[in-house]
Amino acid sequence: MSATLATLLHELEPTARIELVERLDSMASESSFAWNNAGTGHAGLCELNYTPPGADGSIDIDKAIRINTLFEESKQLWSALVAHGNLGDPADFLSPVPHLSFVRGEKNVRFLRARHEAMSNHHCFESMQYSQDPATIAAWAPLLMAGRTADEPVAATRVEAGTDVNFGALTNRLLTRLTEQDSDRVGIRTGQTIRDLARNADGTWNLQIETRAGGQRVVRSRFVFLGAGGASLRLLQKSGIPEAKGYGGFPVSGQWLRCDKPEVVSQHRAKVYSNAAVGAPPMSVPHLDTRHVDGKPSLLFGPFAGFTTKFLKNGSILDLVKTVRATNLSPMLSVARSNVSLMKYLLEQVRLSHAQRVEELRAFYPDAQAEDWQLEVAGQRVQIIKKDPRRGGTLQFGTEIVTASDGSLAALLGASPGASTATSIMLDLIERCFPERFASVQWQARLKRLVPVRAETLQKDATRLGEVRRETHRILKLGAADPASSRPAESTPRATRVPSRNADETRHESMTAS
Asked: Coiled-coil ranges per the record (predicted)?
């Protein structure tokens, strides 16, 4: 998020001075680090929780459409930078990997069939394939069917044009590009921690920064973005802006099973998502993923949740306690009372043995062998707790931006889909914090070169979407996933469908999509 914002601001206002401050000794070592996240290019293709069923059995695909087109904005930005020649080889951070949804049991098969019918009728998903045939599913993802009984009802959908993203490599490339391009105006300081920040009478901010060696310095800035993962909440509270009141955080740790064994890895080229267990939170949606990290393929399965009071993987066990305030204590207690099942789920997850984790994996990959898989500790997620006039407090599972009324400070809170929609979320932030300049002819012209077609247009215009995908896939070397491929035989004819929300609502909700 921070690297994307810095990139956009530098492109829109080339004379601005920008400094990034990182507490660790290297950039992208927390949430963006490759093994700390699933690396899914979230595009609404396979994530079943983005398409909830209604009471009448209908499928709401608005969120999937929204996230799909927001990811197209990210791909447009990356394409523009690659085409300019200073983002390196896109294969270093982006790989074509099909996205599958996979379900078992008659009820889930009926849901997936209805989901496919609803989605394939929209131009964003017209290439989605559906099958209940075990042989077809085995051809798509052999591990799913190896050792599975023939009488078990199964179904899957597949979109060839999915992606695996190494967000750590992408972040480092974005930042390297900035310093190589303009080291006089863009600075990166690692091993330094922001201890406090205060607003001056003229609306600027003073940031008190401590170096690893114990030195102190103060940076004065007209605009501050707090993109520190889970640590953003405490810095936001220190800012003292009224908009920060009432926010709390609930940390959840993550773990994966990881396999590097070539004989197993070579049999699976897909990101396969399924249903969360009954009573489990959205963050627990199980998936078996192909990952490409530093040129080497691996498999990840999970996530398995855990609980810690740290807000960062490299944080302190006092992080949670230090964010408790009089203004957020009531919402936090309210959330604790109303989420007993979540607490129970987390405790159960913490107590899982390696054998029990592998047993969960076998629901996806029946022939999985425990010795082929090792535990990988993922990054921390801090779910947002917000005041609610009716319930006292609610637990949010999405991404949210909090801004000062004068636009001089903004903070990023929350989690998924996060990095996949970073371009859209940061453009939304820029529009909120710099409304006059954002609307100017100069900034709009520069933005047009970076993101030629915005998500609102792509949601409604099939022709423009096809044009954008063909161009971005060509530049980003995603040609194996043909965005203009013909529709599969099992799909129904496409009918025009437009999301019910208007453009303004879509822009606002892009910041809170989960």
From this structure: none
More confident of the two residues 506 and 276: 276
Model pTM score: 0.89
Q: Domain for residue 233, yes or no?
A: yes
Number of neighbouring beta carbons within 10 Å of residue 107: 11
Of 121, 135, 91, 75, the closest CA to residue 422 belongs to: 75
Give the burial class of 280: count Cβ atoms within 10 A of its Cβ; 0-12 exposed, 13-18 middle, 19 or more buried: middle
Residue at 215 is within a domain? no
The CB density around residue 32, as the number of other CB atoms within 10 Å, is: 24
Q: Can you name the residues that pair with 429 across neighbouring β-strands?
A: none
Q: How does DSSP classify residue 313?
A: T
166: tokens are: 């190494």
Question: How far is residue 386's CA from residue 327's CA, in Å, rounded to a whole number?
Answer: 11
SS3 334: helix
Q: What is the 3-state secondary structure (H, E, C) of 117-135?
A: HHHHCCHHHCCCEEECCHH
Across the range 292-318, mean pLDDT stands at: 90
Looking at the predicted structure, is the pLDDT value of residue 313 above 60?
yes
Average pLDDT for residues 56-66, to the nearest whole number?
94
Please tell me whether residue 290 adopts helix, strand or coil conformation.
strand
Domains identified in the chain, total number? 1
Residues whose CB falls within 8 Å of the CB of residue 109, separated by 6 or more in sequence, listed in order: 103, 132, 153, 154, 155
Q: What is the per-residue pLDDT for 417?
A: 66
pLDDT score recorded for residue 383 = 86
Asked if the structure places residue 196 within a domain, the reply is no
Question: How crowded is residue 327: how many other Cβ atoms within 10 Å of its Cβ?
Answer: 15
Spatial separation of the C-alpha atoms in residues 201 and 135, rounded to whole Å: 69
Structural tokens at position 29: 């070592």
- Among 169, 164, 174, 166, smallest CA distance to 2 is for 174
Q: Tell me, yes or no, whether 214 lies in a domain.
A: no
- Domain containing 444 equals 2-190+223-509
Average pLDDT for 465-476: 97
pLDDT at residue 496 in the model:
32
CA contacts within 13 A on the Cβ side of 513: 34
CB-CB contact of 313 with 229 (8 Å):
no
DSSP assignment string, 474-506: HHTT-TTS-TTPPPPTTSPPP-----SS-HHHH
Q: CB neighbours of 348 closer than 8 A, spacing ≥ 6?
A: none
